[in-house]
Automatic annotation (TrEMBL):
Protein name per UniProt: Beta-phosphoglucomutase
Binding site for Mg(2+): 10, 12, 170-171
Sequence similarity: Belongs to the HAD-like hydrolase superfamily. CbbY/CbbZ/Gph/YieH family.
Organism, scientific name: Mangrovibacterium marinum
Cofactor note text: Binds 2 magnesium ions per subunit.
């Protein structure tokens, strides 16, 4: 079995479900702009940076605005989002996540966060799981959005791990592609059809152990090579 040196996790939709807070904040902004923004539209924003998300919404509404105005709107959305996440607590960690992270650390596997969110440190603080991460690579430390592999390559570098010995956990297509572009193994968290490019897809972390997952991903990767 291939030796796993590090595991890198996306935040939203993998460790915690903040997607609804993003949606509510973007929806409030879109309503003010007279744009009909739906849950289906919100799927287009998964794994996408704040400014790129705003551009997608403006395109939906056929609106063209100055960069100055866009910067102001992005800040406005973030303030609404912050109001939501400041009310978060440990109960919002997705089932099994804390046990899985704790087990990884006991095995001596490096653990890093790789997220486009600039609010990642605050969310980890609210969830009280910041101590379970050896490195946090967030939106303040990268300039290129997924599917560019920058966030995961920086995470591997921070953990002194070779990309081929890293597993990335992602719930978004762009994130799976970023992992592949980094030369890492990818575990999709969510729908198998949507995340079909991953080496392995899981529904979540409840009852899952690192040893079992490592065995599964090794078997699936071997089968794909045959």
């Amino acid at each position: 079995m291939k030796k796993i040196a590090a595991c890198l996790f996306d935040l939203d939709g993998v460790l915690v479900d903040t997607a609804r807070y993003h949606f509510l904040a973007w929806k409030k902004l879109a309503d003010e702009l007279g744009i009909d923004f739906t849950l289906e539209h919100n799927e287009l924003l998964k794994g996408v940076s704040r400014m790129d998300s705003l551009d997608i919404i403006l395109n939906i509404g056929n609106l063209q605005l100055s960069q100055e105005k866009k910067n102001a709107l992005a800040d406005q959305k973030n303030q609404v989002y912050l109001e939501y996440i400041l009310q978060m607590n440990e109960e919002e960690i997705l089932p099994g996540v804390k046990d899985f992270l704790t087990a990884l650390r006991k095995l001596g596997v490096g653990v890093a966060l790789g997220s486009a969110s600039k609010n990642a440190p605050l969310i980890l603080e609210r969830l009280k799981i910041g101590n379970l991460f050896d490195a946090v690579i967030d939106g303040t430390k990268v300039s290129k959005a997924k599917p560019d592999p920058e966030v995961f390559l920086k995470g591997a570098e921070a953990l002194a791990a070779k990309p081929a010995a890293c597993i990335v956990f992602e719930d978004a297509i762009a994130g799976i592609e970023a992992a592949r572009n980094a030369g890492m193994m990818a575990v999709g968290v969510g729908d198998p059809q949507t995340l079909s490019r991953a080496n392995l897809v899981i529904s979540g972390f409840r009852g899952l152990t690192p040893e079992h997952l490592f065995q599964q991903i090794n078997e699936h990767t071997t089968k794909k090579r045959l």
